Amino acid sequence: MAEDSKSRSLEDTPTWAVAVVCFVLVVISIFIEHAIHVLGKWLKKRNKPALYEALEKVKAELMLMGFISLLLTVLQGPISNICIPKSIADTWHPCAKNTEAKKFSGSSGRKLLEFSDDTTTIPRRSLASKYDKCVDKGKVAFVSSYGIHQLHIFIFVLAVCHILYCIITYALGRSKMRKWKAWENETKTIEYQYYNDPERFRFARDTSFGRRHLNFWSQSTLSLWIVCFFRQFFGSVTKVDYLTLRHGFIMAHLAPGNETKFDFQKYIKRSLDDDFKVVVGITPTIWFIAVMFLLAYTHGWYSYLWLPFIPLIIILMVGTKLQVIITKMGLRIQDRGDVVKGAPVVQPGDDLFWFGRPRFLLFLIHLVLFTNAFQLAFFFWSTYEFSIKSCYHENLEDIIIRVAMGVIIQVLCSYVTLPLYALVTQID
Fold it and tell me: pLDDT tens digits, residue range 267-285?
């Protein structure tokens, strides 16, 4: 009787109930659309074209996810009517068969109905068709109607996580750059101008930048990468690095005499906006990688022991590479001669980056941010749909690793690596 109540059609539902649901959904949609419109006007008024483009990309991604959800709704019947042999349907499950039976045999009717494949004894849930064609053929539906409904919920959770990740990423990046404002103000002081007198000669290794980077460890590739690996955790951008990279940029792009007039920190903030505009989008390549991540949640693959660490390894490699690039720019100063006049002038180049493409590092940062959001979205969705004690989280270490890695990667990527990337790449 309860199942009949859940599966009744609109012709058996009061019109006022349908009208109320539609009214609430329309009001919520109009409110969100108006809020996005107001935010866009505010960004235009504040002369932030990069952030406005980022907002447009977020709108496009939301529309894409909405279109995917719409397709799932329209194709729900045809997809659930695709029949496959039981032998194939029994492969690559996220949970072991015996685990499912143990965990849900004593649970509520909702759990039994969600996980049961035996449609001859237990009717499907509300979104399932009343008649399963595959049962008569001795086969199983490719994806059940209720499974498609759960995909709807996952897409919604993914959209919410993606938006929250974008906001957190930008907030942490700008927070890191606010600390650079004091260093920028220092360049306008008499002490800074005296210390960086263009008529002053010094050995390159005696400058602050030289003492930080021109050491015995910088002569060996192995020791260079080891030191740079740990540097990203302890002051990824120091004052001496910031001031030296600032001076290199001004010498390369501005006329002499503009050292104290140019606000380099403000310029880097605009560069962060441009980079942020890229990382909020989702390219087809990243969508494909996200689908591959779904395959990894197969029982027996122990994905919680290795999958969350892939984004961590990538972002640590990117951060290390950026530190290595700064040191190699210092080595180039020494290669031009032991004596420098005034402040050391760094000379960047695309050859310092992997494949000679600085934007490849931004792609990796973009990939890490989305896959991290994707994994946390999957964790929240599986917890909501199947509870924290489901077979998706049968190991305590699974929960700890996924949540801890999600937080660590987000902070490391947004607060450390992305601002460092904006600084290093803009001096070219």
Answer: 888 888 888 888 887 788 8
